Amino acid sequence: MKKQLIAVMLGLGLMGTSGIAAASVSVPHLQTTGNGEVTAQPDMAVFSVAVEEIRPTAKEAKQAVDKAVAAFVARLLDEGIARNQIQSANISLQPQYHYPKDKEPELKGYRASRHVTVTVNELDNLNTYLDSALGDGINRINNIELKVSNEDEYLEQARQAAIKDAIAKAESLAKGFGESLDGVWQISYQASQPRPMMMRMAMDAAPESAVSYQDTEITIRDRVDVVFKLEE
Asked: Signal peptide span per the entry (predicted)?
């Protein structure tokens, strides 16, 4: 009875922040959280750019942004980007007012904007595509996401590292308390979502000062919560 009480108290202490409810475990046990991570060099990217124009009329504003987007998409297609790797959002059109003191608002024109998101499978070409955006009238780079194409493989490596970490911690704890493990009682796992590396670059960045994307690393992490039975 004493051994069981010690084991359960140990489990309760470790499970304070876990998603596994202590009340559901009716055997002597302990719980560990395993963490694993691997680093990967990005080999692809997703970038988002936009064009915004203000013109006297809504029609002129729309035509201006449509022209820039059409030219940019055409250039991307010519440079080998597949059409399904390019997503151009619908236009946003808003009236622009001037608010003079003690007078009625004055309509000054219309602001039109469109966003384009591009997936780049060959990271070496990223700066070329960004330069194309500048030449075609795109006037804003929203963000650049650096990613890996074989993401599932790195996730599996991180997951296995997390499992090994959970087992190592359990064995160390059991040994320290003079106990022995008797298998796995419960596993709690929620798949992690890798976070791509986010970058921003000024529209007027010089090519020689552009980020060396290939020199960066992405860290992919995973975790698992495991309840281990203790020998009675």
From this structure: 1-23
In sequence order, which residues have a C-beta less than 8 Å from that of residue 35 and are 6 or more positions away? 161, 162, 165, 221, 222, 223
Domain range annotation of the chain: 29-42+151-199+215-230, 44-147
Residues 124, 44: contact at Cβ < 8 Å?
no
Q: What fold does the segment set 29-42+151-199+215-230 form as a domain?
A: Translation Initiation Factor IF3 (3.30.110)
For the stretch 143-185, pLDDT in tens is 899 999 999 999 999 999 999 999 999 999 999 999 999 999 9
- The Cα–Cα gap between 11 and 206 comes to 57
Same fold, 29-42+151-199+215-230 and 44-147: no
Other C-beta atoms lying within 10 Å of the C-beta of residue 195 = 12
Q: How far apart are CA 134 and CA 72, in angstroms?
A: 9
pTM of this structure: 0.71
CB atoms within 10 A of CB 221: 16
- Which H or E run contains 7? helix 2-14
Give CA–CA dist 32/9, Å, rounded: 14
Burial of 32: CB neighbours in 10 Å, binned 0-12, 13-18, 19+: buried
- Condensed to tens digits (0 to 9), the pLDDT of residues 106-127 reads 999 999 999 999 999 998 889 8
